[in-house]
Amino acid sequence: MVQHSRIDENTDIEVPRYWYNIAPDLPKPLPPPIDPLDADISLINRLRELLPSELIDQEFTFERYIGIPKEVRELYIEIGRPTPLVRAYKLEKSLGTPAKIYYKFEGVLASGSHKLNTAIPQAYYSYREGYSELVTETGAGQWGLALSIAGSLFGVPSTVFMTRSSYISKVKRVELMRKHGATVIPSPSNITRVGRGILEDEPDHPGSLGIAISEAVEWVMEKPESRRYLPGSVMEYVILHQTVIGLEAIEQFRAIGEYPDKIIGCVGGGSNLSGLAYPFYREYVEGRAKLPEIIAVESSLIPKASRGEYRYEHPDAYGALPMIKMYTVGRHYKPPAIKAAGLRFHGLASSLSLLIREGLVRVRAYDPDSVREAAELFYRSEGVLPAPESSHAVLAAIDEALEAKRRGEGITILINLSGHGLYDEDFFRG
Amino acid sequence: MDLGSRDGELGIYIPIAYPNPETFRRVLGESSQYVDIFELGVPSKKPIYDGPYIRRIHRSLVSSGVDYLSVARSMNRSLDGVDVAVLGYYRDLLGDRSGLFDELASTIDSLRCILIPDLLIEYTDHLENYIDKSSTYGIETCFFISSKFPYRLVSRLAKYRPYFIYLGLQASTGSDLPIHLVRNIGVARKLIGEGVKLAIGFGINKPEKLRKLLASGADIAFIGTEFLRRLSQGIDYALGFIRSMYEALR
């Protein structure tokens, strides 16, 4: 008998009407952003010129729940929310494990990844506040593509600084961004002071997310009256928007009478894992459920959480943004040009870093070859090609499932399959 | 000192000995008729939650080598009975080699509490030590919180019956980000209940803003950066500003 892996009850759940802010439930206060000690001007105040006002307010809100605007919620539905919760029966079978493996498949969204969950509200608030150009950075192009789509939904074009190594290797995403009216610029570029400085020293620099952020910020500062900088991760309000993933997943698990023992996600800046896991953490804090074991999976080549330090650091390479307290390998770290380019970021979101620090989130780091093998196994088993970044979570799930097999434990594992890998042929070529 | 019936209490923040010991004492003496509480800053090499303006003041005080403890000892007469909250960072006040908490607690006559903004963010485990120390010197506690504090912790702090709980309205002193401050004050008020004073500060720079924020549920408002900016342009200019803030609350 063929087992259908799509959970039929999924279709019965609603798209959430609010986002969940974890700060009121954290075990300790979230350290505030700070200016560097030697700063002559306030980088914190500079946020006024960079971000839409509504997003600044969400970053510093004291509320636990923030209502999702009607226009945003309608677009969530149009672009594919709620996303399915799928049981990976065939992967389980191929591993011979008693564990149940579920994945929340964000790859079905119109851009192919979870990034649209925050791109839509960020574009919406920018549009509503009258800005005419959305500016951002992107690694693999998942975020750049999501923002390009979201911008085009509101008739606002995007300018995307894309890390040079990905600009060369992720050709399809570059094309797709341009189809949505985006200007895509390989970073480091010669149109910013930051970019020119780097290219002078190293003309073939592969770029990094930290550099691309610095270029995007500089670009906005040249014309703050019409441009806004919109980041794809790290900021707390980005995570806030991503909590639609976990809020839906809780309802989906309720519908099938299950609950995860482990929640796994890859981490670049941390928004996809946090977006999935934080609502489950809320269930625990409010005494409605046990706390699943939360596992953050990073690339061993950018080991910010497993080997980095917990300290204040700028999110961008050139120190144009306020410092935040996070696990980091340092903003000057030059990450190797791995194919999971969305993980090539030097730090982790502040709230996720705090949870790691407090022992509430565990960290694992994997090398690219093992990750690719896991992705191929998943593809052969499930017929779904995971994005290189999401494949890190897949590998961790496989390891957990095999460990469960050794112990004879029937645990339930939930992973965030944050995107598909259909545009990442470079990854699967090895 | 009775300042008459008003819609809230007013405090000013000034680092000890700024801009120099003599003017500092004069500012205290001449502003005491307008303020309910002085928030006196301990000069620090690392005032991390302050904005660049106040940091520059700290740097200049530290590098000037001024003996601010001796200034603190000599200022009691200038205080004119106005309540004092000392504000200092943990390392400066309670760090391994610092006896500053003890010195200040036993020096200032009208000291109500010592506020340590990084206590609950970076040194959470030292909360009980802080409470014990305050109790030893017969002063009350007071706590700094931000909009990124856990609800349970804020509610727990209120149970210690502190002199006040201070909500930093912005990410740092002197910031002016578009944050829905009235909403955040409302959340803080709900969490701490009615029995404890809610103080607010950071970025309060106009009488109308002061009035609006106090009307939304806060009891005390502290004015820092804006007062110090004006003080750098002359004592009368700064006092005129404080008078206008005072009058806004009448």
Description:
The complex is a heterodimer of chains A (430) and B (250). With 430 residues, chain A is α/β, with parallel strands linked by helices. Chain A contains 17 helices and 14 strands. In chain A, helix 5 crosses helix 6 (142-153). The model of chain A is unreliable at 1-5 (pLDDT under 50). With 250 residues, chain B is an alpha/beta fold. Chain B has a single domain, classed as Aldolase class I (TIM Barrel), CATH 3.20.20. Chain B has 13 helices and eight strands. An eight-stranded parallel sheet of chain B has the order 4-3-2-1-8-7-6-5. In chain B, helix 1 packs parallel to helix 13 (235-248), helix 11 (207-215) packs parallel to helix 13 (235-248) and helix 12 packs antiparallel against helix 13 (235-248). The model of chain B has no long low-confidence stretch (mean pLDDT 93). Chain A binds chain B through residues 23-35, 37, 39-42, 44-45, 47-48, 53, 56-57, 60-64, 312, 322, and chain B through 46, 48-49, 51-52, 55, 120-122, 124, 145-151, 153, 168, 170-172, 174-180, 183-184, 187-188.
Overall mean pLDDT of chain A stands at: 94
CATH class of the largest domain in chain A: Alpha Beta
Strand neighbour order, sheet with most strands of chain A: 3-4-14-9-10-13
β-strand percent of chain B reads: 15-25%
CATH H level, superfamily name of chain B? Aldolase class I
Determine the number of helices of chain A (DSSP H or I, runs of at least 4 residues).
17
CATH top level label of chain B: Alpha Beta
User: Residue ranges of chain A: pLDDT <50 for 5 or more in a row?
Assistant: 1-5
